[in-house]
């Protein structure tokens, strides 16, 4: 008897939890190895971490303004669509569905499985098949929860955000205590230029930015936010500052306890840290880290399903995925769609190759979205925005993103070429299925299949627009 639509259930606290829960996940526990490996030294790796935080703040502020200018959900997709047009937005959607999001989810899932099993097999590494099995079980659990209830997904995100901050505190506190006692051996010759390789720096930034990624998540659920004009800027500023401080202290703690060789040799840096510094927490911290990854998986599914939902509503994705379950009020088809691709990538993928693979496409389109903000300002100077950032912030962020993407072709040409090919493969699909109209016969068959799936899943189109 009720109207079917996505309710406004994301308060300021839940928005803050969504951002913290999406940023603080597997990244800070697996990326230190990738940042150090590609930056060459402790000092330069800390510079990369701080630079990634500053860059994330620039991006978050730009997205906060976009979120007050464009009142639809959908994040990168809707911003590119509204500012640069349908072709680049569809290419983003294509790359996001087939490359960026499943690879990202697979990385976080594998980190969850690795940390979950680490205490049971230490000091040996956990068997790869067991890691992948636990990874998939964790992902399927989050998928089921997001299909069941928006409210419970949001509550879980809030609870796990507290767990994430606790996990960081358990690493930061003992590390700072040892640093205060004079354990500074690993910071000698911190800026060794001999080990710095400039063409590897984009990969260091990819690893660091992966750890910070999540600052854009509030833009995906804009229509479900309470008072978005106030809460989006407030949530992103507070959450990004919190994460920058936490990440810098965490990395200093890592290097206080572990040398560069230990960080590079460790498949799970946080576990190696606890083994060396705090034996009494050897079984606690890996579980907290695994729960942090669990929260990141939850936030990723929660937000990406909204991208598919909005793309379907805009006519660039099958209409089934803009439908909502009649009782649960969740975008059930959009939530379930990632299931097969993530499963495949978890089964065949490796964390660091997957990281480079999806980072190229992700940062290319994020750079295009902030370029779209500059274009939107130029086209609509009369438009009043409740939140406005200085122009140099989106300009700087866009230039750095696109420059890093261009430089990465020299750093990892194989992975980047695969990502580029994935993006370009969307061109013929766009012109065949979106730009040109389907024949009546194909359209009738398509709608017949959609109708059958709609009955099976008990979903309908939303009855009112909330944007």
UniProtKB/TrEMBL annotation:
Its main location: membrane. The chain crosses the membrane at residues 12-30, 42-64, 76-100, 120-142, 162-183, 203-221, 233-257, 277-297, 332-354, 360-377, 389-410, 416-434. The keyword Transmembrane applies. It is a multi-pass membrane protein. It is found in: Membrane. One of its GO terms (cellular component) is membrane. It holds the Pfam family AA_permease_2. It comes from the Eukaryota. One of its GO terms (molecular function) is L-amino acid transmembrane transporter activity. Keywords: Membrane, Transmembrane, Transmembrane helix. This is XCT protein. The lineage of its organism: Eukaryota, Metazoa, Chordata, Craniata, Vertebrata. The gene is Slc7a11_0.
